């Protein structure tokens, strides 16, 4: 009778393990996507996204809020979708911020060059 029980429990055990792994694997990707997207939002904030791309940052933050709500409601597919959208918005905000900072630096460099040319021309005019 012991052999009969082992034969019965082996398939049930395997089925139970498959079910547990299947259910838990759905939560893990959603958690990972939400965490990666939160890091992207944080990086965008650190790059100046709120200052240079406020619309995109607002969208990213709102989508992160909705993704967290979906996680709490255990709607993992929706949480993944919203987290991915938030990540895209955050990366756009970060890119816009980096672009704006580069433009400010280029403008400052152009102004320095203009001033140096004026000084050079003034010095040459005094020599004549």
TrEMBL record:
Location of the DUF4398 domain: 33-108
Annotated PROSITE patterns: PROKAR_LIPOPROTEIN
Domain of life of the native organism: Bacteria
Keyword Coiled coil: yes
Pfam families: DUF4398 (PF14346)
Keyword list, A-Z: Coiled coil
Coiled coil: 83-126
Gene3D superfamilies in the record: 1.20.1270.390
Protein name, entry field: DUF4398 domain-containing protein
Native organism: Undibacterium seohonense
């Amino acid at each position: 009778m012991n052999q009969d029980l082992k034969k019965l429990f082996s398939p049930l055990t395997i089925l139970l393990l498959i079910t547990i792994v299947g259910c838990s694997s759905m939560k893990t990707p959603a958690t990972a996507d939400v965490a990666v997207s939160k890091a992207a939002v944080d990086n965008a904030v650190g790059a100046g996204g709120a200052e240079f791309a406020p619309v995109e940052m607002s969208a990213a933050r709102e989508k992160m809020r909705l993704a967290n709500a979906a996680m709490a409601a255990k709607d993992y597919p929706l949480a993944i979708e919203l987290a991915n959208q938030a990540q895209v918005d955050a990366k756009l905000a970060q890119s816009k911020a980096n672009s704006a900072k580069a433009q400010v630096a280029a403008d400052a460099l152009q102004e320095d060059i203009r001033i140096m040319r004026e000084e050079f021309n003034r010095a040459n005019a005094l020599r004549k």
